[in-house]
Structure formats: C-alpha cells, structure tokens
From TrEMBL:
The lineage of its organism: Bacteria, Pseudomonadati, Pseudomonadota, Gammaproteobacteria, Alteromonadales. Residues 1-21 form the signal peptide. Residues 22-56 form a coiled coil. Keywords: Coiled coil, Signal. Pfam families: DUF3373. It comes from Shewanella loihica (strain ATCC BAA-1088 / PV-4). It comes from the Bacteria. This is DUF3373 domain-containing protein.
Length: 570
C-alpha cells in the first residue's frame, strides 16, 4: 500500500512541476510540494495504523485475561478428635485361630503367638470370650485438642485463554496456580480427604507454584445452521451458580455449584430451546465425562487391575435465564465409583505406627520425614446419583438472592477398601501376609450396602452497601449428603460438602471496577464425619468425641475461618 501511494504522489508532483514550470511560477510549485509532503506524512501515519491492525488480526488471535487473588486466613478448629478403630470379624478370627491357621498361641515364634504377645489386652479379652461377632478393634488412644493456624496466606493466579477459530467455532481455556505462601511441594500429609491431591481437585487445592490446565475446550455453535452446539475438552465445571456471588464474578461454570465443583474431562451437547419456546436463555444440555481411568498407568501389564472406569452422565437445564431470573435443574449419575482416585500424598507417621510397624521403626530415626506416595483405589464400591433445583434473582438495583436444594443417592455394592465402602464401614478379617510370618487385617466387605439418600440446602442474599456490597450465606448438609464440590478452595474444606451447618458473612469493597477487597468469615458446625467423601460410614461427631464412635482420620467438631482478600482482574 505504501509503494502504491508513493508512486501516485511522485507522478502528481512531476505533472504539477511541469505545468507550473511552463508558467514560470516557482512559488506555487513550492506550495504544492509542501502540500504533497503533508499528505505523505498523513498517509504514512494511516499506513502504520493499518499495518498494526493487520498484524493484530494475523498474529494476535489469542486473547488473554485473568485475575490475581492474595488472601490471608485465620483458621481455628475446635475439639479435633482422633479415635481410630476398625471393625473386625472376631468370629472369623476365632475359627481360623482354633484351626491352627495362625500357629499355636503358646508358640512365641508363631504369627498368633507374636500377636498375642504384642497385644496382651486383646489376648485377654479374646480368651475370656469378650470378643465375638463384628466389633471395633481400637488402634490408638483417643486424643482431642483445639488447633489454631493464626495466619495462613494463599495466592491464586488464573489466566483465561480465548480464541475465535471460525465464525461458529471458538476455543477457551484457563490456567491456574494456587499455592500457600512458603510451600510449593504440591503434596500434603494425609490428615483429611481435603489434603488428598488429585485430578478433580487440583484447581482448588494448594498445589504449588506451577500453572495447571483447569479448563481447555472448544465450542462448536449453530451446527448445520441449527440451535445445537457441541463442546469437548476439560470442562468448565467449577464455580457454577449460585457460587459466583461470593466470588464477585460472573457465572463461572455450567452445572450447579451446589452439586458440582470438580474438574473433569468430557463433552456437552446442548440445544438452545429458547429459540423455539421464546423463553430467554432456555438451554438443555446433555453432559458426559470420565472421572477416573482405571487401567492406563495403574500397572495394568501385571494383570491385577480390580477397579473400573468411572463415567458421568446427565442433564443440566437452564429453564429461565433472562438477566433477572435464573432457574436451573440438574440431574446426573456417576457409575462405578471407586474407593478413591489416583493421587499423591505424604503418608502420615500416625498411620504408619498402626499399619506399618517395621517402616514406623525406621521413620522414628527421621522424625521429620514423610514419604510421598502415589495412591490409587482398591475397588469399585457402587454408583451415585445427584439432582437439584436452583433459583436466583438479580434486581436492576444489584440486589441478589438465591436458594438451592440438592439431593444425592449412594447405591453401594457391598465392596470396601481400607477406609470403607459406599457410605459404609469396612469389615476386616485376619489373614497371614505373603510369607506367612505375620497376621494382618484386611478389608473383606462393607458392613452394609443399602441405598442412602442425602440432601442439602443453600441460600443467600447480596445487597448493595456503602463502597461495595454485603452478603450472607447459609448451607446445611444431612448425614449422607455427598456432592462433588471438593475443588472448592475453602482451606477448611468445601463448605457446600459439609455434613452439618455453615454460615458465611462477607463485605466487598470496590476499589475500582477491576479491583476489590473482600472481608469474610465462615463458621462450620459439623454434625457427621466424612464431609466431601463417599467412602466410609458417617458417624456423629459428638459420639466420636465421647469415644463411642470411631474414625480413621481426625474429626473436627466446629471451625471458623476469618479471612481478607485482595482481587485484581486484568
């Protein structure tokens, strides 16, 4: 373009020069040259802007935005009780002992003799006939304490990626870093299910100073000129409605945040039903995903894989979404739930003392060492179904209110691993180890496999206030309430997975349209153990504290989190 304009200007100057030379008017020639010089400068400026736009169109096809959050918490836990025990079938143990399967009890070198010598109280109780049927076998003395972490800092960075591929095809992704200050190991000591780092919870668990791919998917809209669309990839399945209000952002995920805040890979096939019904924002979606891959990477070449792939499927329907009213229905199922996920953790010394005495002796020489291990589930424990209805109202004056009801159903199959079966405890049976030198307790089955229904409610309001907005939220989960919200980044644990009560209050101060400060407080009152996991039978927290019920992991009675955060959007 610049070459063409230069040729035109040169020709115009030559022609004008010849005409004015004939008239012998040098002054007019000079004026014309100045006008042409000014025109050339203006054309160069225009050309520079055109080149810049062309480069942007050709090269800058990826749009990058993001947000940065730094947060300070004060975390406090009351009546943290550890009272570990397993349920043992002592009838089975007695039959095997009487048959001589474990050796003679008066032989100090036999497995049975060694066990009796190491556990004299157990031996006395067994010989007196006090241990019959399925009974708890206490593994360690009960301890209860309050725990305070007065200051706990975290940093979260999220980078949003967008690209227009074609008129009706686009790509979206999000890279996230979430870490606590002073730690980038990415592995925590396994003291609760929250501390277990796995694929579905990486974005909500402090896992180090590296970026993870939280989302990566494409959208293919208006397929064949219809109202149908298809999306495949790592799904936008976190921060769904109505959880976006406490985050002070727009709707972040497709499914109900009351039921699902969990990363998974899959696809969505949707239809914009509102184009037919005339109801604004009405969309029907069928969603499918895979939550666990059982074979690849699990030593499948040894041929001893006992788990199965976990597949998810269901419907998510936005019945109304007109800017003021939002009504959503969710129903889906998860088939072949295993007793855990692939993940990493640091093995706790306390459990080593119970289950690995030889290793425990070595660990005492390095008391500040915990070995990191990759874990995987031991078997399939059943299926799960989740459903819910949520409604939110937003006024034109920025008042917001919402209510959500959720339902979960667990259908166990009677199998159990070390920590239990589907919302049930494991029954352990005694057997000899591989070389026949030691009696070990191994889970044989779940203590029950009946269907268990749970429910949860979640309500809240957000109102305009001086310099920002003020919000109140409350949620409750019943004994068997088991949503998939483990990726929620509350340090104490996903508040929406709580089996009990949680109250939250917050105030957001708007510094500018892209920056705000949030002051918040959360109070947890747990009624039952095992919040956030389908593995193991929920026990009343009061019974664990009293010593009449047991838990393999520490149990929290009440807790509160006072926090302040600064968020910048860019």
């Amino acid at each position: 373009m610049r070459t063409l304009l230069s040729i035109l200007i040169a020709n115009a100057l030559a022609m004008s020069g010849s005409v004015y030379a004939a008239d012998s008017d040098a002054q007019k020639i000079a004026e014309l040259k100045q006008q042409l010089a000014d025109l050339t400068e203006e054309i160069d400026q225009i050309n520079s802007r055109v080149d810049k736009n062309e480069r942007h169109t050709a090269l800058d096809r990826l749009e990058i935005t993001g947000d940065f959050r730094t947060k300070a918490h004060s975390l406090h836990y009351q009546n943290v009780t550890w009272n570990p025990a397993i349920k043992v079938d002592f009838n089975d143990f007695g039959a095997k002992a009487m048959s001589g399967a474990f050796g003679m009890p008066n032989d100090p070198n036999s497995p049975l003799g060694q066990m009796m010598a190491a556990n004299p109280e157990l031996a006395a109780a067994f010989q007196s006939g006090m241990l019959q049927g399925v009974m708890p076998y206490v593994l360690a003395p009960k301890t209860t304490q309050d725990i305070n972490n007065d200051i706990f800092y975290t940093t979260r960075l999220r980078l949003n990626l967008k690209a227009k591929v074609w008129d009706n095809v686009s790509f979206a992704g999000r890279l996230s870093m979430y870490k606590n200050w002073g730690d980038s190991t990415g592995v925590q000591v396994f003291d609760s299910w929250r501390s277990f780092t796995m694929d579905g919870t990486n974005s909500g668990n402090t896992s180090g100073d590296w970026l993870r791919v939280e989302r990566a998917y494409f959208d293919w809209k208006n397929i064949g000129g219809s109202n149908t669309y298809l999306s495949i990839g790592r799904r936008p399945s976190t921060y769904g409605p109505p959880t976006q209000y406490r985050e002070n952002e727009k709707r972040g995920g497709t499914p109900s945040g009351h039921l699902v805040n969990f990363n998974f890979d899959g696809l969505t096939l949707g239809y914009k039903l509102g184009e037919l019904t005339g109801i604004e924002g009405q969309v029907v979606r069928f969603c499918y995903g895979q939550g666990f891959e059982s074979q690849w990477g699990n030593g499948e070449m040894f041929g001893d894989i006992v788990t199965k792939d976990t597949h998810l499927g269901g419907f998510n329907i936005d019945a109304i979404n007109d800017g003021n009213h939002f009504l959503q229905f969710t129903l889906f199922g998860a088939k072949d739930i295993n007793d855990g996920f692939k993940g990493t953790m640091a093995f706790p010394t306390q459990l080593a003392g119970i289950f690995a005495p030889t290793m425990y002796q070595d660990m005492q020489k390095f008391s500040n060492f915990n070995f990191q291990t990759r874990v995987q589930p031991s078997g399939v424990i059943g299926d799960m179904y989740l459903g819910g209805i949520g409604y939110a109202y937003e006024s034109d004056e920025d008042f917001k209110a919402f209510a959500s009801f959720g339902w979960t159903r667990a259908e166990g199959n009677g199998n159990a691993g070390m920590f239990g079966g589907m919302l049930s405890d494991a029954v352990f049976e005694a057997q000899l180890n591989a070389d026949g030198s030691e009696i070990i307790m191994m889970p044989s089955a779940a203590d029950e496999n009946d269907t268990k229904d749970g429910y949860g409610i979640y309500v809240g309001i957000q109102i305009p206030a001086p310099y920002g907005k003020f919000g109140l939220e409350y949620n409750y989960g019943s004994k068997y309430w088991t949503p998939f919200t483990q990726a929620q980044d509350d340090p104490i644990g996903s508040k929406l997975a709580t089996r009990g009560h949680v109250a939250e209050a917050y105030y957001m101060f708007d510094i500018n349209p892209r920056m705000f400060i949030k002051l918040a407080g959360l109070y947890y009152d747990y009624e039952y153990t095992g919040s956030g996991t389908p593995v193991g039978a929920p026990q009343k927290v009061d019974d664990v504290i009293a010593g009449s019920a047991f838990s393999m992991l520490p149990v929290v009675d009440t807790a509160y989190d006072i926090n302040a955060s600064l968020v910048v959007n860019f």
